[in-house]
């Protein structure tokens, strides 16, 4: 079929998630939709703390990717492989409380289901909820979300840091 040839251009071969390029395209479009609708969105960046060059860790990354994708229930949610060894999630039309629900769902689905298959699972999740404005640069949101993931790592195994981003 003709579409089979094109499907690989927006899917990552290792994780099966959307590619970062496709994610960026969808995120940009949704950002502008949230601007028009005056509604908030969230970004999650998940650090699985794996060595993506190790074949065993590649399998773990794939299993974790599948569990994260299964934790997002809405058709508008988008999950991608991000910067080679991370996973990014875009959640649209969602407030801070809904974001925290999804973060907890991700942690709860990964710990019991995968702990027998993947030894020593350790995730750090940075999550940010934002009401888009013309004063906010999208790159700033992603940089802050990375910082939050690093802060979550300092809190210990399988932790997250959530923030509501506002222009001051």
UniProtKB/TrEMBL annotation:
Pfam name, any one: GGDEF
Keywords associated with the record: Nucleotidyltransferase, Transferase
Superkingdom of source: Bacteria
Enzyme class: transferase
Residues annotated as domain GGDEF: 39-165
Documented EC number(s): 2.7.7.65
GO MF terms held by the record: diguanylate cyclase activity
SUPFAM superfamilies: Nucleotide cyclase (SSF55073)
Protein name: Diguanylate cyclase
Species this chain originates from: Psychrosphaera aquimarina
Lineage: Bacteria, Pseudomonadati, Pseudomonadota, Gammaproteobacteria, Alteromonadales
